[in-house]
Specification:
heterotrimer; A: 151 residues; mainly alpha; Multiheme cytochrome fold; 2 domains; B: mainly alpha; disordered N terminus; disordered C terminus; binds calcium ion
């Protein structure tokens, strides 16, 4: 599968206006505005997010973290930039149907969700991180892959 | 409208009864499943699986315009292993379900040899046919079908495995329609201390996702004069268990032409090996990999285009494994490569044993002096054939399949050692033979 | 106060320098790691691992009050395989790191045989000693230590592997301190097209979590007169690669007493086999399983009680695998059982080959007629010994270890076949021998 979001020449070739139109259509149709809230139900507006939503409901983090705690970075601007970028990407993907059945997290978002663990677990893991260089921190999801949602 | 679709999964366009075996009719209610089902005509090769379309001129006798590659040509050791049996005449790579009936009708194993109706069990939609033959009683019909000559029985069916063979028409629940499997799994469960097991009553939904396949993708033989389809599971599913069963009932499939050994032929024990693998142990079913869920519009359906999962890695593997498609392919192929290496070593060793026995026999060795070597051939050949016939090239149970090969190799070694003292006495009688 | 603790993970009670090898001193700064480190004295047996404490009266010559079980008594086939070599005299199950120095000093392989300083590389905290010997240059010191007699070299050290052997004192970063590994991994990477590899500069933090163990848990030999510790990785880490290397350099460890074959002894290739397993492929390191994280107060730390993960399944496996402890134990043991079955088959076959060669030799067969059988013994024995010496009983690389056994079995078969024609001529000379 190489249908991974907008970075394909075909999609880039679509006139901007049409793109906006599609985006806006989806924005309303799939309640894209919900991207602006932190309500996990909002992510679940897209049925393709059901699996993660269901997984999250059963996960150890249901009571302590919502989707955006893990899928957006710290800080107001980075957080809303990420939301906008993902909102756009997902809406487009959803509308065009160009994405794999088994959704795979992509590079940037993987880093975001890795780093998000530190929002809450920095102190606990300070010791195991301290002996490592800055670009070599422990990858939490090697071991804790299903904390947010069992797949 | 995608949203709409999601809410009403079953459009009841036609009313289905338990006597309609035409998949096109069922397809009216379930067009997505039917469309995928029809795509089992596709032929694509993977490194060790799938199948390759070899164009062929259709003839009166064999109307097929393409067949899959011949395995006995690709690996002549197979032909030699089966000398004296129909498989040495024609044996091809298996392909999609759409071909099962036409491939059976036209294999030289059917056109040049006499076969019983039993063959049909796994190559056609036989449910309605068996029900009719038995006057409503499928098991009675099964017994009748088995005893018919193949040429006659095959007139009674029209379709390859169809919806009705796996599904109840009203609820679409999975069900077991094949008496061969019902009897086999019952014997297996009995050996594990579970009395009177009936999968249609006792199996979990997840188990059914493998059992429906286990009706056909299994080792079997034709028992007695009634040619009853029988799975040798009475002592368990391991290679040793099946071999012990055949020893006990004294079954042989053929006498090896070169060595005179009474040997067995193994066929597609996918279910048996899968059952001993890490995936079965983790609760993963055949359908999880070979019919993974796919998104069609707003619906998630089971992909009825049954095929090699390596042609469909994103859906088949990445739901559970968080590695790239390429990496998952490489992992599967690493397992297969290791298997093929060991399998080739064992196959060569078997050829050595056959060659040696043959030479001594030609030179006039007494049967009695060859007994140990025959026993070795019988067991080793069955073990090698089992993992060879298991169509995943070692993937379904990587460790178990290699263990089976070490046992085969040891048996061959002992067989060859047993020939050490043999003095071919009656060199003259050989000519007469 | 938990929070307090958490914020200052490193209490710098003492200032550590690169010349302090006493772990107790380091333990002042890191009491949690030190406490666990000391617990490697524990002895608990698992099905195939851990170790069992056998009480023993301490003597002047051997002050130990308990040793672990003798493997050559548990499996006499091992003794026979090593006849003519020190291992046939004394070989025990390995136990925790705390014992490494005392076990080496008191094994009969040291007390009854002459050994070089090279032995020390993996049985003591040698970093400071080597640095001193080399006047600050560890590699120079390494060369010197290797060439000392063992009895002399061992005077220079006091502790089993200690903090300083794995850690930089200032940052606590992992580091490689052993020239043997530096040279071995460099040769390996060179064979893969990577020039001038230096793990201390080029390895990722995750790789270092295995490399620190790979300094000792590896196959090795003593090269040339300098007895330089050398890992045979120049062509790769597979059994075939290491064997080819030894063939090329013409190395043998001993001549088998009964057969006369020039053979090799394999030792603990955990790193080599682990590297070919699914876990290494998935980025899992030795430390992930053998030193899993544990929570102590408000902190997660690496469990420095290095031991069998099967004594610690919850932390060692369940972080990644969501099955019960019992199920994870059963999975590991299923792999080990299959392995042991194949290993026992191969071991018996090897005994057959040795027995047969021995008999022919005793009966006066010419060396030349035994050449092929010797070659078979050399290769098969090395392969069997490799997977036997690999201490996980097949777990580190289930498929690969079984594949290696199939190759060994085939080699033995060919060796036995080669003895077929051999006629022991000089039956008389036997007595003189
Ligand atoms: Ca195929
Ligand atoms: Ca041990």
């Amino acid at each position: 599968m190489n249908e991974k979001g907008i970075a394909t020449p075909l999609v880039l070739g679509i006139p901007l206006g049409l793109l906006m139109g599609v985006g806006l259509f989806t924005f309303g149709y799939a309640r894209g505005y919900s991207y602006m809230t932190d309500d996990p139900g909002a992510c679940n507006n897209c049925h393709v997010m059901h699996e993660q939503y269901d997984g999250w409901l059963k996960s150890s983090h249901r009571k302590v973290a919502v989707c955006n705690d893990c899928h957006t970075p710290r800080g107001f601007v980075p957080k809303y930039f990420t939301k906008a970028l993902n909102g756009f990407n997902h809406s487009l993907a959803f509308t065009t149907g160009r994405f794999p059945d088994r959704i795979q997290i992509t590079g940037r978002n993987e880093r975001v969700s890795e780093e998000s663990c530190m929002k809450c677990h920095e102190e606990l893991t300070e010791g195991i991180q301290a002996s490592r260089a800055h670009n070599e921190k422990v990858h939490c999801t090697t071991c804790h892959q299903s904390v947010g949602h069992a797949h | 409208e995608r949203k709409q679709e999601a809410r009403t999964p079953f459009f009841r366009v036609v009313e289905l009864t338990d006597d309609q075996d035409d998949p096109a009719l069922w397809g009216k209610n379930f067009p997505l499943q039917y469309d995928a089902y029809k795509r089992t005509v596709d032929m694509t090769r993977t490194r060790y699986g799938g199948s390759e379309a070899m164009p062929k001129a259709p003839t009166q006798a064999d109307p097929r315009d393409k067949v899959s590659q011949s395995k006995i040509d690709e690996d002549p050791r197979l032909r030699r292993m089966w000398l004296g049996y129909a498989f040495s005449v024609d044996f091809r790579e298996e392909r999609g379900h759409a071909y099962m009936l036409v491939d059976q009708r036209n294999t030289r194993r059917v056109t040049e040899f006499k076969q019983p109706g039993t063959c049909l069990n796994c190559h056609a939609s036989t449910y309605v046919f068996m029900k009719k033959l038995g006057g409503g009683d499928v098991t009675a019909g099964f017994a009748k079908m088995n005893q018919m000559p193949y040429a006659e029985a095959t007139q009674g069916v029209k379709h390859p495995v169809a919806c009705i063979d796996c599904h109840e028409p009203e609820s679409m629940k999975l069900r077991i329609t094949r008496p061969g499997f019902l009897e086999g799994i019952k014997a297996l469960k009995a050996s594990q201390g579970v009395a009177d097991y009936d999968p249609n009553r006792d199996a979990s939904a997840q188990e059914m996702r493998s059992y429906v396949c286990g009706q056909c993708h299994v080792e079997y033989y034709f028992k007695g004069d009634e040619k009853r389809l029988t799975f040798p599971w009475h002592k368990g599913l391991k290679a040793e268990n099946m071999f012990d069963y055949y020893e006990e009932v004294g079954h042989k499939d053929f006498v090896h032409k070169e060595t005179g050994a009474p040997v067995l032929k193994a066929q597609h024990p996918e279910f048996e090996f899968y059952s001993q693998g890490i995936h079965a142990r983790s609760g993963v079913a055949c359908a999880d990999c070979h019919m993974p869920y796919k998104r069609e519009g707003g619906m998630k359906i089971s992909d009825h285009h049954v095929r090699s999962p390596l042609l469909n890695i994103n859906r088949a593997c990445q739901g559970c494994h968080h590695f790239s498609e390429q990496e998952m392919k490489d992992r599967a192929e690493q397992i297969q490569l290791r298997f093929m290496e060991a399998r080739n070593i064992a196959m060569d060793a078997l050829m050595d044993l056959i060659e040696e026995t043959k030479k001594l026999r030609e030179a006039g060795a007494a049967d009695n002096d060859l007994k140990r070597a025959w026993a070795a051939q019988r067991k080793a050949q069955f073990f090698i054939d089992l993992v060879e016939a298991e169509n995943s090239a070692g993937f379904h149970a990587p460790g178990e399949e290699l263990r089976v090969l070490t046992t085969a190799l040891d048996e061959i070694r002992k067989g060859q050692v047993s020939l050490r003292g043999v003095k071919p006495a009656k060199v003259q009688t050989k000519q007469a033979d």
